[in-house]
Amino acid sequence: xxxxxxxxxxxxxxxxxxxxxxxxxxxxxxxxxxxxxxxxxxxxxxxxxxxxxxxxxxxxxxxxxxxxxxxxxxxxxxxxxxxxxxxxxxxxxxxxxxxxxxxxxxxxxxxxxxxxxxxxxxxxxxxxxxxxxxxxxxxxxxxxxxxxxxxxxxxxxxxxxxxxxxxxxxxxxxxxxxxxxxxxxxxxxxxxxxxxxxxxxxxxxxxxxxxxxxxxxxxxxxxxxxxxxxxxxxxxxxxxxxxxxxxxxxxxxxxxxxxxxxxxxx
Length: 266
What we know:
This protein has 266 residues and is mostly helical. Helices cover 84% and strands 0% of the residues. The longest helix is centred in the C-terminal third of the chain and has 41 residues, at 190-230. The chain is globular and about 60 Å long.
C-alpha cells in the first residue's frame, strides 16, 4: 500500500509528526475526491475514504502492539501496560489532529458545504440539546455507547475504530471552521491560526479525556482482535492479551465518566 511505503508502521510510533503530516495530506485528498465523485454523499464518503486509507496501517500497528503483549506474557519486558502502549496513543493523536487541521482548513477557506453537511447538523444537534448543568447522565450514556462501539468495531474488524475516530475528528474540524469563517471574513486568513487553538482549547477540558478514551478503547479492541487470530484461545499469551484489553477498556470507561462530569458540571 502507498501509505505504508511512505510511513513504515514499524517506526511510525517514533515519528508522530510524520503521521500528522500524512494524515493531513490524505484527509485533504479524501475530501477532494469525495466532493468530486459523490457531492451529495460526500459528507460520509470523505470519512470513509480516510478510514479505507488508514485501516491497513493501524492494523499493522496493532500487530506490533500484540507482539509486545507476547513479550510481556513471556516476562521478557517488564514495562507496565500503559508504558508499553503509550506510543500508539501518540500515533492516534497525530492521526486525529491531522484530520482536524486538514478538514477545518478546507471548511474555512474552500467551503465544500456538501462535504461537511452531516457534521454541521451534528453540531446543531449538540447546540440545541446541550443545556449544560445536570446533563451528566446523557453525556455519560452517549459517550459510553460510542466508546463501546469503538471497542467492538476494533475487535470485529481489527482497526475498525478508525472510522469513529475520523468521524469525531471531522465534527471537531467543522466546529472550528464555523468559528473561523466569520473572523477570516473580517480580518483575513491569519484569523484561522488564532481560531484553531482557541477552538481546540474550548473543548479540551472534556474533549481530551473523551477522545483519549476512544483511542484506548480502539487499542483494546485492536489488541484483542489480533490476539484472537494469532494466539490459541486459552493460552497464556491470549489470557494476557484479554486481561490487558479489559483493563484498557475499564480505563477508557473511567475517562468517559470524567469527561461527562466535566462537560455537565463545568
